[in-house]
Amino acid sequence: MHEMAITQSVVDAVCEHAAGRRVHSVKLEVGALCAIVPAAMEFCFGLAVEGTVADGATLEVDVRPGAARCRSCAVRFELSDPILLCPCGSADVEVLEGRDLRIMSMEVS
């Protein structure tokens, strides 16, 4: 389960940025091509925050679709999973969006 390693990295970054302040919530934007299961990440978040300034914080995961451009027909299209195939049938595609994971916001006090 790669979600645990990714979530631990997010929690580490959030706690460092919080600089000792209590973290109440974290909002992430995750690209659909990251192959992250939001429910698994939420479960891992609950474990990773134990004993930190983010203990008890909530996690909101916003999964954003990916985008690609076909090198064969030049069409830009949306991707909702890691199957990189253009509607024209070509697999010669360039991924433009969807592989990012961003900490969008965090609520601290």
The number of distinct helices, counting runs of at least 4 residues, comes to 2
Mean pLDDT: 95
Helix/strand structural class: alpha+beta
Q: pLDDT below 50 for ≥5 consecutive residues: which ranges? A: none
Give the helices and strands as they follow along the chain: HEHEEEEE
Question: Which quaternary structure do these chains form?
Answer: single chain
Strand order of the largest sheet: 2-1-6
Rg, Cα atoms, Å: 17 Å
Q: Using the alpha-carbon principal axes, give the shape.
A: elongated
Terminal CA distance reads: 32 Å
Q: Write down the CATH topology.
A: hypothetical protein PF0899 fold
| Second-tier CATH architecture | 2-Layer Sandwich
Q: Report the top-level CATH class.
A: Alpha Beta
Largest sheet: 3 strands, mixed
3D structure, described in words:
The chain is of the alpha+beta class and 109 residues long. It is built from two helices and six strands; from the N terminus they run αβαβββββ. The radius of gyration is 17 Å and the shape is elongated. α1 packs across α2. The strands form two sheets. The protein has a three-stranded mixed β-sheet with strand order 2-1-6. Strands 4-3-5 form a three-stranded antiparallel β-sheet, with no helix packed on it. The protein has one domain: hypothetical protein PF0899 fold. 27% of the residues are buried. The mean pLDDT is 95.
